[in-house]
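User: Just a sanity check before I run the rest of the batch. Below are the structure tokens for the first item. I only need the designed sequence back.
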């Protein structure tokens, strides 16, 4: 009989407590330090000497066709989407070199840090907001969605962490994506900002590593490391955030996540890597550096996740991604499992992404590239010269609506780094506490700015697009597009910094004649999200050429958004459903995604 998720978590907690587990001490119960260089595969770590034999191979979803020269790439660790069972779990209370380095409790901060806005509660998520959300899946044999975490065989240690995160039930993208990934399938997933995509790709990876039997090769060189999973994201801050999340989800599972990103001392990151790594979270530039120094090998990668995948595959990043994924030693599609996630997926990028996928499932939760209805969007006509005083009026009005005596957080997007500095300076001399985040600031300054903003000490953050994607900052009540972006997808990501996890938010855009190319797609997007479109904007939309502000979201309403379903793309008949990796459309489309070539390192 299947017990409820809460029951099994409670049981796991009791069992763990009986076994000497203490949630707060970060202790792992090991007293002797293993030698540093001896690799212990995750599924064998912290087992008593006479541990159980490994779980038998699963019958489903064996991928064949490519046999790595020296690596055991059988798919025996995969659960093939079954929801029951539980055999073969490695609920280990330690892991990498834990005799030397005690695992820090990533949940401790949540309890101890001053929380000016009250605890960051996830229990209050408004799931009703997602009830009627349209979902589309396409591809062969799509595993069915689940309604609860209890239905998913994630393993007790991970379930315990889910409970610690106060996740009561899966969000819609998690309901669909987790069974697909646990079934060993490649996935292209599109779901609205703030809807829980990070957990949707982290849970199957952690669970797969816990359950898997990935045979580690003896190291080539003492200092080379062999992660089993790679999670790439476009910005340093986002990689750090994903790493923080991954550490929470993998706490006391024996799975170790490490982050590597540019702008921070590489030696420190190298030392961290040397302590062992199962999941490497990285920005592309720093990873290329590590690969070129022969300090990381991708030979053992079983899971590849690209967060903000459309950004990762646009012209700015595509060459680096191709280098990492196709030109180093990473196993090919069909051997590794690949997961692409974003809130926006232009068709050109979908097409390009097929180079990295094998017989994948396309999943769209909500309308592809649409914003969530939880965000109230306002567009105001403001001449360039009036923008500052208009912003001032908004901020004054907002002061009245402070939360717990503090001003609600406001994120102001501008076009340029100089513009960010100058606006921040002006706000400060006018009595508003503001800071900035952009590519010209040192990494230390960027991180300090983000910390100060998050804590509420500096409630206004002026940002370039470096902060547009992925950042999950609780209590951002208002996003102001002081300068609108040229691309509607960037607008979607920017406003998505508010209205997250079922909460509501406000987004105000300053529009003037300089933005007329965006009018049409902006009006469409607002209409789709049930927002009031001002009559003057509709007039601009009607006048504007469709070229400049052309929606890259695929056109039309929800449905048929998988580009393989579009007859104009699907010239090869069943090719795209048949798992062929040879795109008929060339290796790299000329799609720029709104960024020119060579923009990579400013982000990375
Ligand atoms: N099942 C859940 N129950 C409650 N809260 C959740 C659940 N899953 C995720 N969350 C919370 O929702 C918030 C948003 O999640 P996340 O950052 O993964 O969104 P996202 O879809 O990746 O957004 P973006 O598109 O902006 O990157 C986070 O604070 C996360 O902790």
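Assistant: Here's the designed sequence for the first item:
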């Amino acid at each position: 009989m299947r017990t409820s998720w809460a029951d099994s978590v409670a049981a796991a907690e009791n069992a763990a407590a009986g076994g000497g587990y203490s949630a707060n001490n970060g202790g792992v119960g090991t007293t002797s330090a293993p030698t540093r260089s001896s690799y212990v595969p995750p599924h064998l770590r912290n087992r008593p000497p006479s541990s159980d034999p490994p779980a038998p191979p699963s019958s489903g979803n064996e991928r064949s066709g490519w046999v790595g020269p020296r690596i055991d790439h059988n798919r025996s660790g995969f659960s093939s989407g079954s929801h029951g069972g539980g055999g073969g779990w490695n609920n280990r209370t330690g892991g990498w070199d834990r005799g030397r380095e005690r695992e820090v409790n990533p949940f401790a901060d949540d309890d101890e840090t001053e929380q000016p806005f009250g605890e960051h509660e996830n229990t209050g998520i408004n799931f009703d907001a997602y009830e009627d959300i349209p979902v589309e899946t396409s591809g062969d044999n799509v595993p069915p969605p689940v309604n609860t975490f209890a239905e998913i065989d994630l393993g007790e240690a991970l379930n315990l962490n889910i409970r610690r995160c106060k996740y009561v039930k899966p969000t819609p993208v998690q309901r669909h994506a987790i069974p697909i990934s646990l079934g060993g399938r490649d996935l292209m997933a599109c779901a609205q900002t703030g809807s829980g995509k990070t957990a949707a790709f982290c849970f199957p990876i952690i669970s797969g590593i816990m359950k898997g039997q990935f045979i580690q090769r003896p190291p080539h060189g003492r200092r080379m490391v062999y992660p089993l999973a790679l999670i790439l994201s476009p910005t340093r801050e986002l990689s750090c955030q994903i790493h923080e999340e991954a550490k929470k989800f993998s706490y006391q599972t024996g799975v170790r996540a490490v982050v590597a990103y540019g702008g921070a001392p590489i030696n420190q990151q190298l030392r961290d890597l040397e302590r062992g790594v199962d999941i490497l979270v990285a920005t592309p530039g720093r990873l290329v550096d590590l690969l070129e120094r022969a300090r990381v090998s991708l030979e053992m990668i079983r899971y590849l996740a690209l967060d903000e995948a459309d950004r990762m595959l646009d012209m700015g990043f595509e060459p680096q991604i191709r280098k990492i994924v196709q030109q180093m030693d990473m196993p090919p599609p069909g051997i590794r499992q690949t997961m692409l996630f974003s809130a926006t997926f232009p068709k050109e990028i979908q097409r390009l992404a097929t180079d990295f996928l094998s017989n994948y499932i396309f999943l769209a939760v909500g309308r592809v590239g649409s914003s969530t209805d939880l965000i109230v969007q306002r567009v105001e006509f403001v001449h360039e010269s009036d923008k500052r005083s208009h912003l001032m009026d908004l901020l004054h009005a907002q002061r009245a609506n402070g939360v717990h005596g503090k001003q609600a957080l406001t994120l102001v997007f501008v076009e340029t780094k100089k513009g960010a500095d100058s606006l921040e300076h002006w706000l400060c001399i006018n009595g508003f506490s503001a800071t900035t985040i952009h590519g010209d600031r040192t990494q230390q300054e960027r991180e300090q700015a983000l910390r100060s903003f998050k804590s509420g000490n500096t409630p206004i953050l002026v940002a370039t697009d470096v902060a547009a994607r992925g950042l999950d900052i609780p209590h951002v009540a208002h996003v102001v597009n002081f300068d609108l972006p040229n691309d509607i997808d960037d607008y979607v990501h920017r406003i998505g910094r508010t209205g997250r996890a079922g909460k509501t938010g406000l987004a105000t855009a300053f529009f003037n004649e300089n933005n007329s190319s965006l009018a049409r797609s902006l009006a469409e997007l607002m209409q789709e999200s049930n927002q009031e479109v001002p009559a003057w904007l509709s007039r601009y939309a009607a006048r504007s050429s469709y070229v400049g502000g052309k929606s890259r979201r695929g056109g039309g309403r929800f449905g048929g958004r998988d580009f393989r379903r579009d007859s104009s793309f699907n010239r090869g008949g069943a090719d795209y459903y048949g798992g062929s990796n040879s795109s008929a459309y060339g290796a790299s489309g000329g799609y720029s995604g709104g960024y020119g070539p060579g923009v990579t390192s400013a982000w990375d």
